[in-house]
Amino acid sequence: MVSVVFSSFSRERRFEDLTRAVQHCDLCGRLCQRTRVLSPSNGNLHSRVLFIAEAPGRLGADRTGIPLFGDQTGMNFERLLGNIKWRREQVFITNAVLCNPRNELGTNGTPTLQELRNCSSYLDMTITLVDPAVVVTLGKVALASLSYLKPHGFELQNDVGQLRPWNGYLVMPLYHPGPRALIRRSSAKQTSDFVALANAVDPVGGLKKKATGSTRFRVPQSRLDPPTLTPEANVALTVIEFLGQLSYFKLTKMLYLIDLSARQELGHTLTGMTYIRQQDGPWAPSLTRAMNNLSDFEILWTTIGKLPNVRSGPSPRIRPQLDEREADLVLRAVKKYGSLSNTGIKIAAYRTKPMQYVLKAEAAGLSMLNKPVLSGNSTCDELDDTAPSSLTTARPDLVDSCPEHSDD
Ligand code: SF4
What we know:
17 helices; Uracil-DNA Glycosylase, subunit E
């Protein structure tokens, strides 16, 4: 590839260097005879918004040299822009690959992974050069192309219309405006996605305060700095790394079960958290704070069936660190409980000795709500010296009568 040195010249001068390099590029055998769509017609180099589409269209940019222009996709895109009162010359538009891919029939094809990889350096240089507040990806391929520059875990279906931090920028994944994408995202929904975009950012003024709580164009540095890896964050991240995604309910119960096992095997819990008796079993109040400190980077919050879920995030600033014995213990817990439903793991938690104690105390008329079930290395039966011995003997019938959890 022709080497491009990004010197301290003006943005326009550096863009000239870049477009010149692109015009000589022949990295992709099947694409290099096509128009390389990168020129001043791509838009405003000083825009705060940079759009990335998939590839130049046969009847559109390959013919006109202007991205998202000249075909039905271009008309759809201009209608969406017009609805939010933006003009093409206010934004910068590029593609994941700069040349038009065609299939055997001669119609528009999909770029291969190798072609996406080949063109990723140009995409990287373009983003660096324009330095937008928000990168808007149009369609699945455009979103995937960013992961060649820095891996992310965004999924179009889950993250559409949301601002997500990525590589020091904010990314908003949207659907492609082409006619085929209308099957997955109706025209009305695409119109409202663009309204969400306009509510978040202005192509001239940058990020809007209400979108981020900040008028800064970039994610504040303090958000990019790694947070303190608390013991509960350490174990929670390890579980999420193993499982990918799980309900927050299940994560809480899983940590409780892990802590009880660690106490038995290693002589101490891994998190040191206090779990209190809540209606649905042991609950750790400090976990929510720890998870919020990791959100948007190490983890993402999602909702499935109205239940909060957590999943691996796109841009980890820290990685969990457990020693060999701790990691082995967590892995065994993941294997044992990872496939259980919310109800299943709740029953597993209720079968533990401390929860048996709680259930029997409640059956005896004591109020245990908000009382510690496990606190540091001590369990509730040990904490309560005055507990009658009848409360410390297991009664499986109380487990069987525990109410079904409605979260499944
Ligand atoms: S798609 Fe990109 S990498 Fe491939 S030939 Fe065109 S300019 Fe070069």
